[in-house]
Amino acid sequence: MAKVLVLNASYEPLNITSWQRAVVLLIKGKAEQVEHNGKMVYNNFPLPTVIRLRHYVVTPYKEIPLTRRNILHRDGHSCQYCGYTGDELTLDHVIPKSRGGGETWENIVTACVRCNVKKGNRTPKEANMPLRQTPRRPISSLYFEVTKHVRTGTHQEWRKYVIGA
Length: 165
Ligand SMILES: [Zn+2]
Known about the structure:
Helix content is 23%, strand content 25%. It has 5 helices and 6 strands, in the order ββαββαββααα. A hairpin with a 2-residue loop joins strand 3 and strand 4 (45-53). The chain binds zinc ion. The site of zinc ion has 8 residues, from strand 6 and helix 3. GO terms for molecular function: endonuclease activity; nucleic acid binding; zinc ion binding. This is Tlr0496 protein.
């Protein structure tokens, strides 16, 4: 079912909600419509896809779980050593576990089977296999969720509200 991107009063993405909840916020005057897809919920009431709150809301930082799915998404489903994209993707510890490398966003990257085997129990430097980008913890969990929707093509119209999506 259609989801709606909720922007803060500052135009920063705040969360993703159902269209029903978005309609309630609009009717109560707590939000204004920013984008709609042309479909009508009621007479002269277009189905929103992006709304903006009238008052600024302060939100706490939410942790993003360190999962295989999330690591693959961060790395754009591509091997961080050779750029391969396909089904044969694994997770690689940049500093091998046996040598003290941790289970962290900074130490786990997407790697194809070939690169993972080739690198073996070495660091990228020892293996002469530099990483294409430095692995980092994603900054915002919402940003992370929004980019997933944009990349799968379900909500292209959200793209302009998320830098780099
Ligand atoms: Zn590779």
